[in-house]
Every structure is written in C-alpha cells, then in structure tokens.
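Lab meeting, item 3. Inverse folding demo.
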C-alpha cells in the first residue's frame, strides 16, 4: 500500500530510482537539505514500504501580499509507479499545506513547454498556464509558469494569464 509521509533526511539515500528520467531535475544534496530544513512541511515522500521512496514533492512558500503562494519545486514518481495517481496525491499534499498552513493565494510550478505529458497532467489537476518564461531552462528552452488558485483567491486573479511572455529576470514575487 502506498502512503504519503513527511520526507526524512535518510530518504535522500533512497530516492535514486525516482530521479531517472531526463525531464526530472536532480539537485545537489545541499539543495534538498536546505528545502528540508527551511520548508519541511512542503517536502513529502510517497512510499511503498517505510524505506522505499517511490515519489516525492518538494516546495516552498514565497511572495508578499496577493502574491503569497506555494511553489512546487519538484514532483516526481519512479517510472514503475507512474499513472497510479501518486503525483496527484503528492500535489494535493502540497496544496493543502499552502491553503491550511500558509493561507496562500495560489500554487505555481514551472514546466518545460515540450513536456506535453506533464502539462496535461497538471491541467487535469486544475492548473493553467499563467505565462510563458523565455529560455527558462538553462537558456535553451522556454518554460510555462502554471498556477492553480487556492480558496483565498476568491476572484481567481492569480490565474488570469499574462498576454506576453516574460524573461526569467522579470519573475518577481514582491
């Protein structure tokens, strides 16, 4: 049975099977530890057994005023466990933290414009493209900033799409 629980430091030694495809960003150990220390409530693991990590989501909260939001830094599931609803469970966990713990206006994430499978999945979860970010991925590929409004954003202002693409240096949360 799959469970979703808080990510632990030891999980960093057990997540290699999760980060195997080219579209999954793999970060340095210090990056994961910084997130785990700073935003532990935003870091969850999906497990088949207590020590068998088969997916994870990591994120943070950022912004000010009506731009206060949860951000999905990474969500991924091991290839053998995909298409079983685990990503949806992990995203739901992060969305609940954004709403119930931090009272955010929206959740956002970035995805490569070429990753049609992920874009379709996020759209099924209620996300929509807010803006296109030019050369977001290492200056080689554009990214979509996708958003989902939380209940605090009653008028859904946070998800009204921008009419023009932006550059990475134009992304601000002030």
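The presenter then showed the designed sequence:
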């Amino acid at each position: 049975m799959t469970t979703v629980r808080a990510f632990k430091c030891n999980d960093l030694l057990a997540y290699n099977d999760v980060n195997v495809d080219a579209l999954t960003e793999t970060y340095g150990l210090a990056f994961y530890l910084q997130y785990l220390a700073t935003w532990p409530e935003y870091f969850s693991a999906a497990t088949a057994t207590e020590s068998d990590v088969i997916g994870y989501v990591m994120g943070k909260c950022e912004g000010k005023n009506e731009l206060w939001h949860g951000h999905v830094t990474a969500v991924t599931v091991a290839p053998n466990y995909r298409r079983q609803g685990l990503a949806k469970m992990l995203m739901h966990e992060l969305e609940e933290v954004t709403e119930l713990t931090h009272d955010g206006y929206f959740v956002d994430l970035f995805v490569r414009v070429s990753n049609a499978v992920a874009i379709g999945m996020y759209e099924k979860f209620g996300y929509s493209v807010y803006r296109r970010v030019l050369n977001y991925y290492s200056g080689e590929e554009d990214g979509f900033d996708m958003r989902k409004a939380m209940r605090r954003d009653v008028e859904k202002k946070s998800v009204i799409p921008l009419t023009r693409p932006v550059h990475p240096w134009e992304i601000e949360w002030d």
